[in-house]
Amino acid sequence: QPLISSSKWLQLHGLKQNKLSLSQILSQIGFQHREEYVSTLGKPVASRYAAGLFAQYMTAQDGSVYNLTAKKELILHFVDCLMRAIELYKQRMDWLTSASRQIFGVIQEQCIVIVLDFGTASPAEFDLCCDALSMVLMEQVTQIARFNLIRAARDLVRWQLQPTAVSDQAVSSAVKWLWKLARATAASPGSSAQALLEAMGDETVSS
């Protein structure tokens, strides 16, 4: 799936976009039962001719009543459309809560710098961090334009001097660099902040 936000995804695949919201469906399978003031007659007029002729549905949002006129085939068509929409939503949720997205969310920027601050992680915790970082590099960074890695330490360690263009070779190189980092490196109290400032020093970096 493309690396887009949920709001953008809903603009493409949401119920409203596909004319499957409740109000949109009701307008296609019936008509609203109205009681309104008609200025030309000078009095309220209700569409009472529909009373008893059609099945009716009252919406919970504003209490509007719709007279349902659609045949069974059209109703079943909308049932099928909604079931497909539900399945699509489930797939999106499964995707959002799996692999690197579960930890890092969905990367939407085209040029990023990932700051690595391992703190006082144990060797096992360090390896877990490297696993997660390798995952995000291979799953998401491969879909953007440029990236770099900086490790927060007493002496900052960069993968590259500047963000570099994404390619299979670049990502592979970054993963190898990551796993070759020393498990324990002395860090100063301000090293994390310094690493963040270095990461944001390039005006082309989005995040």
UniProtKB/TrEMBL annotation:
This is VWA3B protein. It comes from Eudromia elegans.
